[in-house]
Amino acid sequence: MSEKDKSDDIIEISEDDILVQDDGESAVGGAVWKVLIVDDDEQVHASTRFALNGIEILERPIVFLHAYSAAEARQVVTQHSDLAVILLDVVMETDHAGLELVKYIRDEARILDTRIILRTGQPGYAPELDVISQYDINDYRTKSELTRARLVTALTASIRSYRQISTIEVTKLKLISIVNAVTSILEQQSVEFFGNEVIARLAEFLGIKNSGLLVIRHEGESELSVIGATGSLYSYLDNFHHFISDGSANSMVRKVLSEQKSHSTGESTTVYVRSKNIRAAIYFPCVATLEGMDPQLLDVFTANVAIGLANLNLLTKLNEMAYFDELCKIPNRNACLRMLEQAIQDKDKEWQLFLIDIHHFTDINDGLGQRVGNMLLQEVALRLEHGVRGFVQTSRVAADVFAVIAKDTVTPDMVLALFEEPIMVAGNRLNVVVRIGVCPGTIQVDDALAVLNYANIALNRAKANPHLMWACYEQSMLENTTERIRIVNELKQALASRQLELWYQPQLSLDPMEVIGVEALLRWRHSGSYVSPAIFIPLAEYSGLIVDIGAWVMRQAANTLKHLQKRYDMRMAVNVSMPQFRQSNFIELVDGIIKDSGIAPELFELEITESIAMEDPDLVRDKLQELNELGVSVAIDDFGTGYSSLSYLQTLAIDRLKIDRAFVIDIDEGKHGIIAEMILELGKKLSLTVVAEGVETPEQEAFLRERHCDFVQGFKYAKPMPVEELDTWLQTQNVVVKRDS
């Protein structure tokens, strides 16, 4: 043998690595090494099989797979991803068929563990060194070099390398699985879910059925607790005596906890877990080979389970917090939803949900303080808990809203009766008024949240009607709610896409008859027709969209006034809502609009309704004073429909009263216009000008002229119109228009 031949055989192969089996059977349970021979020469296939006949490497026999072209080889590697080695000819269909196949295996098929030995009968076709490195090729040999000994040597080295790479990859995947499992376990928000997830994940790692127990024992105590149970042992979770009576499970768990180490017997497997103050055992009534699982991975798993167990008390506390209202010491919204889910699943539909809202609770909270408010909530909870036979569960689902799941024999009047007597709180005798929304259990529904929503829809109906104390959910309520949501969404789009318009209705003086201004009125053109303001304005206020719409209206009206002032001396009246008034930057917004448009502030008039003026007297008084300081005039709209007092009215910085059209109509209906006449007299005494709106007949005009009404507005003179029509109207009507001096 030459020196070169000797150097080729330097790789050491022990007798343990290579075993020849006389009977040709595997030394270990049927496991084999798959070796693919890829060559277009049948003689190479035959000689390779002959050379390696009966040889076992690393205690496994070799099974040969054959391909006679690169195309056939692609099919084989696709079907067998567990190939240990590929003996590959470089030159086959083409000069580079072998290298192209290597590229396919590594880059496209993404088979990275399999070892590749290149063989060629033409030394001139040897691949470059960088190609061997790039595609992770184990060896390159000419066919003439590969004697039986060298072939065995090369194959053994490649298989050993394949086994190491595969082991690393499996360990890596198991570690990733462990990390994911631990994350899933620690995300659990209840003790039961935590325990069951631990069992399920460990069963998965051990490759056994998910049927087991997680049993804990606190430090210094002898009592055991089952906190997780799955599969056939699930009943042990609620019936601990089942576990005690199971002699094999009980004794094995106690043995593992006592010896502080895991055990696997012929009947069961028990894994030990130790944390700071708790010892635990995970028991499976089946056999698993713990030695077959990487001990380091098992340690990682149990260490993280121990972290969860160390926080077991915290988990229990979190579980209580998730379903318990700390203030009122009753179940909370989550508990209510859980109970509703159970009620929905029951075939018995003889239940109903009451939502109970404390009317004007905010006033009590603000007026008497949060401490008194909290005490009131506690007293209400007590009355509901001990009030009516047939209550199943009482819970607090919002700040001042309680939920009662009750049998269908309970009526809303029974609930209302609980609050007929005043409640004494911190020396305050409080007459508590509640509104109730009811959702019957007979409603067709799939989830608890829908039941709560339906009851809330009914509650809102009761709260919206001052004459209703309670309302029961009906399908039409949901349809109305859905319709309101649709309109609000479309109104948002209308504001963004400039579908809103301002129309203007003239205001005139009676003596002499001349136009003194216009009122800006909002219009919404939608799908070819106009939506009634009576529909969309209340929804805009309810949704809060009125703030943005109101700002747009003021800017648009100010720009129109600037346009009109080029030819006419007139004022612009704009309606303002309470949500706008409540904006902290409302005064700054008005001031900015006036300055940006360049209009005279005294010609820009804001109208607020009498009900707004009474809603928050201090706020309104302060805001009106600030508007007055800007030079902006203010009118009280719909005057006579509210309950403002004369003394309060005298404190407001206002310039005008507007008689509501309902009182102008009275003039023609034989009611003698008494209220309209009273408002005219009041305006004179307070030195306020008066505008009568809704004037439509000569009789109404004559009545108002006779009593010296300052200004009028109505269909008798002009309907609301776009600014282009207003320009034309101002030029063609037989009225005197006040021009700039």
Give the rounded overall mean pLDDT.
83
Number of helices: 28
How helix-rich are the residues, as a percent range?
40-55%
Largest sheet: 8 strands, mixed, barrel
| Cα-atom radius of gyration | 44 Å
CATH class of the largest domain: Alpha Beta
Task: Summarize, please.
This protein is α/β, with parallel strands linked by helices.
Structural description of this entry:
This protein has 741 residues and is an alpha/beta fold. The chain folds into four domains: 3-171, 3-Layer(aba) Sandwich (Rossmann fold), CATH 3.40.50; 188-318, Beta-Lactamase, CATH 3.30.450; 324-473, Reverse transcriptase/Diguanylate cyclase domain (Alpha-Beta Plaits, 2-Layer Sandwich), CATH 3.30.70.270; 488-723, EAL domain (TIM Barrel, Alpha-Beta Barrel). It is built from 28 helices and 31 strands. The strands form six sheets. It has an eight-stranded mixed barrel, surrounded by six helices. It has a seven-stranded mixed beta sheet with strand order 1-3-4-2-5-6-7, with helices on both faces. The longest helix is centred in the first third of the chain and has 39 residues, at 148-186. The termini are far apart. Mean pLDDT is 83; it is low at 1-29.
